[in-house]
Structure formats: structure tokens, C-alpha cells
Write a structure and sequence with these properties.
The protein is α/β, with parallel strands linked by helices. The chain has a domain of 102 residues: Glutaredoxin. The protein has 5 helices and 5 strands, in the order αβαβαβαββα. The chain has a 5-stranded mixed beta sheet. The longest helix is centred in the N-terminal third of the chain and has 27 residues. The chain is globular. The N terminus is likely disordered. It comes from Alistipes timonensis JC136. Keywords: Disulfide bond, Electron transport, Redox-active center, Signal, Transport.
Amino acid sequence: MKKLLITAIALLAFAAGSQAQTNNKNAKNMKTIALTKADFLKKVADYEKNPEEWKYLGDKPALIDFYASWCGPCKALAPVLEELAAEYGDQIYIYKINTEEEQELAAAFGIRSIPTLLFIPMNGKPQMAQGALPKASLKEAIDKVMLGK
């Protein structure tokens, strides 16, 4: 009986581990997405055609990280955003814009310090936050501002 119980526990542990690996593989498929100005104009908002009016073009809420490769707080925030991309999966987009490479785009949004985060809900106005926010604060903002939870 004891051997049977140990075998059953081992099988359950193996099955749970296999399921966790499957879930991790699926989660790892969701990553942050780098954006250029051309991508931004197609996927987020064409501010050149509509300079006075915000019109989001996406099909789900988005979080945009304006960053630079040399920025310490940006480097600290990057793995947190990757984790959030995996956790939220296909509920939201998490985009990254390198302000060194996309200076015109950064200027269009008045980015003066980095990291700057732009939270874009499906309805309503986008909201900006500056600095490397902790993961809990980011989740709260995603849930409230973007997903309306």
C-alpha cells in the first residue's frame, strides 16, 4: 500500500510538473513588442493624420514603455514588463519604444524622462506615468486603467 501511495504521489508530481512546463511555454510566447514610428502609426495611433484627436487603433489595451538602452531604471523595469506580458497573455499588448532610435516619436509625446509608461485603454484617454514602477503598481494600473477591473 505504501509503495502504491508513493507511486501515485510521484505520478501526480510528474503530471503537475508537465502541466507547469506547458503553461510556462505558453506564457513565454507572450513578450514585449518593439515599436518603430511606422509600427506606432499603424498599430497605436496615427497622430500625423489626427494631431488634435487621440484615436487608438489597437484591438486590445496597450502599455507602452518609452526607454533607452543606457538607462538603469529602464533596465530594471524590462524584466518586470516581460513577466507582465507573460502573465496577461493576450489580454493586452506591451510595447517598447527606444527613445534613442525613435526620437521623433518620443518628442511627439513630450517624453522628457525615462522610463515613461503610457497606459492605453480601449475607451477613454491614455494615461502616463514616469519612473520604474514596482510590479504591484503596474498590475494595479493595468487592471484599473486598461482593463477596467
